[in-house]
Each structure stands twice: as C-alpha cells, then as structure tokens.
Design goal:
heterodimer; A: alpha+beta; 6-stranded antiparallel beta barrel; B: about 475 residues; Thrombin, subunit H; Rossmann fold; 3 domains; 21 strands; about 35% helix; binds adenosine-5'-triphosphate; binds magnesium ion
Amino acid sequence: MGRRQQKTQAKGSIIRVTGPVVEADGMAQAVMHELVAVGSERLVGEVIRLDGEIATIQVYENTSGLKLNEEVFGTGNPLSVELGPGLVGNVFDGIQRPLETLRERMGPFIQHGQRVVPISRDKKWFFTPASKVGGVVGSGDVLGTVQETGLIEHRILVPIGITGKIVNLAGEGEYTVTETIATLRVNGSEVEVQMLQRWPVRQPRPFKRRLPTYAPLITGQRVIDTFFPIAKGGSAAIPGGFGTGKTITQQQLAKWSNANLIVYVGCGERGNEMVDVLTSFPQLIDPSSGKPLMQRTILIANTSNMPVSAREASIYTGITIAEYYRDMGYDVALMADSTSRWAEALREVSGRLEEMPAEEGFPSYLPSRLAEFYERTGVVETLGSGNRAGSICAIGAVSPPGGDFSEPVTQHTKRFTRVFWALDPELADARHYPAINWMQSYSGYIGNVSAWWTKEVTKEWDSYRIQAMRILQLEDDLKNIVKLVGPEALPDRQRLVLETARIIRTAFLQQNALDPVDTYSVPLKQFKMLKIIVDFHKLGERIVSRGAPLFKVTQLPVLTDIMRMKTAVPNDKLDQLDEIDRRMHQYFENLEATMR
Amino acid sequence: MAGTGLEYKGVSQIYGPIMVIENVRDVGFDELVEVKVQSGETRLGRVTEVTRKAVTIQVFEGTSGLSLSKTRTRFLGKPLEVPVSMEMLGRVMNSFGEPIDGHPRFFSEDRRDINGFPMNPTAREYPRDFIQTGISAIDGLASLVRGQKLPVFSGPGLSHNALAAQIVRQAKIRNESEEFYVVFIAMGLEHDDAAFFRNSFEETGAIKNVAMFLNLADDPPVERIITPRAGLTLAEYLAFEHDAHVLVLLTDMTNYCEALREVSSSMEEVPSRKGYPGYMYSDLASIYERAGRITGKKGSITQMPILTMPNDDITHPIPDLTGYITEGQIVLSRSLETQNIYPPITITTSLSRLMKDGIGKGRTREDHADVASQLYAAYAQYNAVKSLATIIGEEGLVSRDKEYLRFGERLERAFVNQGRDENRSIEQTLSIAWDTLAQLPDEELTRIHPQYIQQYLPKIASEVK
Ligand SMILES: Nc1ncnc2c1ncn2[C@@H]1O[C@H](COP(=O)(O)OP(=O)(O)OP(=O)(O)O)[C@@H](O)[C@H]1O
Ligand SMILES: [Mg+2]
C-alpha cells in the first residue's frame, strides 16, 4: 500500500516558522491531518490547515533551529498509533514514542529528531490461535491470543475493514509483532495480517452498537461509589484549583478501580508525578488478581515541559489505545490529567494560526473537540462475532484558572460528562480529602448503578444514601444559623443533625489515600459503615424525641470505634463492623430501657 | 545549525523589544542574534519568527537607541548559550553568565544552551531526601525535599527577602559529605535588595557556595526572561555533572511574569487572563520542571521560587499558574506579619506535597509525620474555636476550647516565630512542636502514635523520670 502512494506524496519547503507552527509551500498533494516529516531533522508534524499550495503544520517537537526552505515530506498516512502486544506496562509520550527506549538511546534528557518505533519489533510473543483455517472471519473476530502481561490477555483481532477466508493461520508459537500470523483471502486477493496494526488517532474506532451502562466502576473511594458513582463506560469531570486533589483522586482510581485496563494520560503535568506512578504501580498489588498493577496500566506522559503540540495529541493517543482494548472486550478506564492543559495547547496553536478567538482566547471549536473526546466513551457491543461487550470510561481533570468553575473548559466539560466531582479549596485547606464537595457534585448514573448495588450488595443502598445525603443537606442549611448564633442555641434535634453530619464527614467522606487500609473500601464495607452512621442518627433522633438529653447520644461509647472504623476495619474483616453495629444498638436499647 | 556569519545592515521595523529584518537568508527559528548599535555597543537577541519576507527578532537588552538604517545584525547559528563553571560559585553574574562583581573573569568549562532539554520522565528519580532550612514552619510542617519545587507565595512588603536570605545561609542536607550549593537568581531586583542579599551572603561567608545571577529592576525586561534559564543551566551542570545538591532560589517570579507579559503584548499576541500570555503556564513549567533528580546521578536540583502576589490575591495568574506546576506552596500572611511574627508563614494554606516521602525515620525522625499531622489538625481546631469565640466571647468557651486557644497562640509565637539568625535543627523544631502540643489535653493527641507520646511528650517524659 505504502509504495503506491509514495509517488503522489507531498514534498514542499518551509516558508514560515513560528513556535510549533510551520508553513510549507508546494504541499498541494498533502491531505488534512497527514503526518509529515519536517526539516533536515525530520521532525514529526501534522497538517492542520490547507490553503492552495500552502500547508500549515503543527510540529510535535521543538522547532529550534528550523530554517526557511528546509524540506517537508508527506507520509501519506494520518497521525496514527501502533497497536499490538507490548503496550501494557509501558510509558509513551504524546505521540507514542516509548520513553524508556528514548532514555536508553539518548540519556536522561529528550532531544529532538529522534525516531523510535512505539512497539518493539524484536520481542517475541507466544501466540495461540483461536480460529481455524478455512473459516470466514470479519473485522473484530479473534484470530488468536497472546498473554501480554499477567493481567491482560491480548486478543489479536481481524483488522477493521477486512472480511475473508483464513487461508493460513500461524500455529502456537513465538512470533514478533511484524511476522504474519494469518493470511486471509479477501475478494480474490490475499491479505497478510500481523499482530502489529495501526489506527489514526483522530478517528474513533467503529463498533456494532452502543449498550446501556449498568455496572458501576467500583473505585473503592467512598464519596464516589456511595454518593457520586461513575458507571463503566461513563464520563466524569473532576475540576479543582491547584492542590485540591485531582491527581491523587485519579491515581486512586487508576490503582483501585475494577477496570480491566487503565490508560493514564499525564497531559501537561508534572514529571515527578509520572515517576510516582512508575515507581509505585509495579509495587502495588491488584486486590482481585494479586498481580502488580503495572500489568494493567499504560502510561502516556507528556509533561508540562515537553512540546505543547504533542500534549494536544496525547489525549487522542490515549483514547485510541483505550478503544483498541475495548474492542477486545475489556472495560477500560482512561484518566486524563489535565484536560485543561490539552485545551490550552489547542489555544496556543490556534493563536499561532491567527484564528479568531472565542471565550478567553480559546478557539471556537473547543466545545466540539471536548464533545468528540467524551463521545468516544461508552459501553459498546464490539465488532466481531460472539457478542463481546467492552467499555471506556473517561475521567478528565479540569484545572480552572483561579479555581473558578465559570471558565470555558469547566463549563463545556460539564455539558459532555455525566459526573461532576467538584473539588473544594476550603475542604482541601482543612485537609478534608478527597475534597469533593458533596453539595456541588452530582452523578447522572445513580439510576443506572442502583440496580447493580441492589443485586450485588444490598437492597437498602438507595434508601441509606438518600438518608445520609439528607443529613448533609440539613447541615448545610443549618450552617448559616450556626454562624450567627453558635451551635449551642439550636434545639437538640438539630444539634444531633450537626453531630451526625460531622460523623459522616470525618468517618465516612474523608478518606486518606496514604493509609494502607483506608485507601480502598470494598462496596460492602462502604455500605456497612454508612448504615451504622445513619442508624446512629435514627436511634439518636428517637431517643432525643423522647426527651433524652443530647449528650447521652453523643457520649455513646462505641462512637470512637465508629470514628476509627475506616482505618481500623480491614476489607476482609467486615464482621467487626457488625460488632460495632450490635454494640451501638445495644447501647440505645439499654438507654431506652432506663427511660421507660 | 551553522551560523552564516553574514552581517546585515539596517532593519525595516522596530517596536517594543522587537525588530524586523527583511531579505535575510538561512536563518533558523530561535537562533541567537548579535545586534550592533551605532554607538558600538553589542546586544543579543533571538529569532522569534521566520517567514519568506522577514525575520522577527526579540532584542534582550531592548531596542532603545537602535536606528532603522545603522543597526547591524549578525546571526550566530545557535541558540543562546551561557558559560558554566565550578568557578562561578562565589561569584555574581548577569543574565548572560558574565561576572559583574568586579573580580577577574572565571575560566568557563563549557557553554550550554540556556533552554536545556526536557527531562525524560522515566529518567527521573522520585524525590525523597530532606533538606533542612532551619526554619521550623518549613522543616516541621512543609518540609522541602531534594528535587522538589516549592514556592514561597508572598505579598508586597512582606518579609520574603529576609526569609530567602536566611534560607540561603542556613539550608543544608543531612549528609555532610555531599556537596551542597545555592544558585541565587534575582529578577527585577531593586539595587538596595540586591545589596542586602550580597552583603548577607558575604558577611556570613555563605557566598563561597553561592552563585548569584542578578538582573536588576532597571535592566531591560526581556533580559529577565533569560536570567532564570541561565542560572538553571549552571544548576544542571553542578547537579548532574558535579554530583552536587543544588538549591535554586528564584526571586521575584512576579517580575519575571511581568516581563513576559510586556514582551508578549509588544509582539501583539492574543492575551489570556489579566493580559498575561496564554502560554505562561508552559513557559513557567519550562523553568520549574528543571527541578528534579535523575536516576543514577548523585546530584539534585531543588527550587524555591519566590513571588509576590499582586493584592495578596492567590487566584492571580502568577501564583495560580505557579501553584499548578509546583509541588506545594509556602504562603506568607499579612496578618501574621502585622503581629510581628517572623517568618509570617500561614499554616493552613502552606503544604509540601512531597513531604510524606521525605521525612520520617532515617530522614528526619520517626515521629515527624504524626506530629505534623497533629499540629495541622489542632491548628484547624484552633481556628474554628477562634471564630466561635468571636460569636460567643472567650468566656463562653468550654475549657477544652480554651486550651486550643492557648495552643494556637503558642504555636504562632514559639514555633512559627523565630529569629532571623536562628537556625533550628529538625530536632529542635520537633521539640518545640512537642512543647506546644503539651498545651493540649493528652486525649486530644489522636493523630500521634501512643508510643511517640510516651517517648516525646514533655510532661509524660518527665513523669517517667
Ligand atoms: N485522598 C487524599 N488523601 C490524602 N492526601 C490527599 C488526598 N487528596 C489530596 N491530598 C493531598 O493534597 C495534595 C495535592 O493533591 P493533588 O496533587 O492531587 O492536587 P491537584 O488537584 O492534582 O493539584 P494540581 O492542579 O496542582 O496538579 C497531595 O499532595 C496530598 O498531600
Ligand atoms: Mg495534579
């Protein structure tokens, strides 16, 4: 294919350089979004505008030293990612250059003009065929499998757009990604299929149809799972000013959520955070499989000091890889930290193109780009036979300037995502983590996931979370009065609300990511904890309404155990919670008995 | 890129720090340019855009005195480079790394591109080792870790200069056998302040381990954009080629950002918030992300950028974008300053994000994390009690709350507050922390492991005796 196109490929020369944007003349043959090689160092670029003979190119590497009249070559291909075994456990930059390999080649600093293929051509993988010679297969059918890591069975699929009869299929054995593993007869000609495939990043991969979301993505984070859940295939925004906890929350989700595969995109953020993931994930053990978490994680790291245009590409690189694993039938969770940096990259390039700015200098197509990105999430029935379902859920951090949510990126993201975890600087300053504000946040998936909770955990999930939420709501209403007159002036019933709300906040909502036990709570633990607290309130209310003084309720001896249960009760010893629950009921019964 | 060496006479346009030359060939983007003024003076600039018609040049020292017809320009075929040398320690340099302290030139061991290259994230090593500044509020509650970038958010007129000077004099690593240097980068500094810093380093002898890069308030703003890069280029050389631990102080980043805004607007770029350029985040990141450690290398670069928040507003783009890049912040408060508390470090909003991995047994002391967490929690409680007291009056408080009031006041007066020459070891800092915690009823110390309470809490310790 490649050779035939070469004749007509564009070859032009540079007529303008301004930062990451280059214009080249003589590019009539170029096509929109074509990948081009720029200048004598063959820097990677992408055509982003065509006007007569002139192509405008965004260059994904530092353009220092680039001169007029240097050549620009078309490649005939759009900006694409390589797909195949060898992605999981690896770290790539925004245009999928493998950072470990770059470091081996050129040391600790990234120089420009380096070409390295994303997926190793030398490594051999043990392939097990899953089809038969003579069978007719179509796009998305499984030709065979490779155990990519201890956690991921990589399914080698018939490439999209191909249907034919298998005339040759590799037997069990070791193959590199470029060796042919199958030959298909397609319309009379033979097509060779390798494990290595490519897909243009800006084009969503096709599927059969969308399916409704139903299962929650269990994250082990109580405020999320219990109050503002996200569904597999869902989308969430996590906006917050600096230091409010976006990254820690995303890392917690990457660590503990029950997705099959995590794609973590560090988009314009810190280098040290990437090393943190790289050093901690191989040590952390996935609770369900007992294998290191790195075995289900792919990292895209385009830190803030790396070229800004590659930052723009990183989001697409990430979601395309996510789609590829979705198509194998996996539940994928993608974290993008931070989508604001991606939007700023758009803005910077747009500015260089002298486009008419819309709100706050962002280009007018910002909302449509955001929409396109979040459109790529969802639960789908994949191509191929066997009714495979796969999903992508995307969690985008948003970094609003000055922490002000009225700015364009937060506002538009809100339109295209269904969960909103609003981070609150006041909570963060008070070291209430996760600083997710329970009055401003919402989830549009509660209806979807409640069936799952009812079936898998308890019928009472809805009722208890609503009661707890009501107590928090009441506290919020009372707050202003308390500010004016102090809590002492309130009647006991209302002071009990304040007391229970305080318990919900500190014993349930606050969750320390650094504590070995508290870092993750299984759904049943979350429910039992919540039930204890809400029952405390109900029992307390009853006894107070019968005239018992409030201090009798607040001096409940098991209260210290309730306050400590999040850290003291491990996920596999939940009967300790039943014991607390029993002691609490006992106390109230005794109390009531003394009052009769 | 090889320089053409050709000299061009005359330019077609001059505005702000920018000049435009037509009909030049073979010029590279970002290339260094030498500009000869008719008076004979030579200035430097860089190419910011090349088109078929013309080349746009930003002149670092400004364009005043330049004429359209007499200006001569030479393209040097390489980006701006500065000398690096061990001999720059103990010396004062300008933004181009040239000595300005009146002493003889030093031997330059190499010349380096001031922009450096981005560190490959996979080559980084996670920061874990404590740096002692001798300041209790920092060491105890927002510890600085080697390879971290931890800014100081100050306000106009607050005592950040004194704090910066004190940190330069006192900062040290716990392992004395490794080299520790300071690169001090001043941007837009007043002459008086520059003299204050120089004297303070010279008097105490600290200067021999300090390399100072000075850009003064009356130096051209464009030059301010290269000062931090020149200093960091030396820091990288010292850290990664001479195995030294380098602490880089940058003051005042507000002046830097203002220069960035000025240059951007003179280039007629579309402004973002408050007129600052849309790329200010990336630009600041290209400075701050040069902090770090590299696997397999002994040295490290730690940064403390200092900035003054306009109107004490933490949401202003300068502190805001800085906070989005750095790993925590130390915030100075006007209210503490007016209460004569030095350094006026606010406990609630100050945070070191890397502290958790840089303290504890073998790094500082085993009780450090618990003590810090308890101080934070108790201080938050103190603030809550204080605002309650404003409603119902101090008399109305229960005794436990009164103890919190005493605790909080003591924390500010005895722990945060310290002398401008008082250099406290981490052990001293922790011991003052324990004295302060002793103000509280024992059962309030829920965040500290009982064993440490036994061992360190003053009254218990003395009872045991
Ligand atoms: N769940 C948590 N448990 C414990 N500490 C937390 C938690 N969430 C946040 N923190 C604390 O808050 C600090 C900042 O959090 P984080 O790095 O996630 O902020 P951020 O919102 O990503 O900020 P930025 O926008 O600057 O990247 C952390 O270093 C940690 O000290
Ligand atoms: Mg973050």
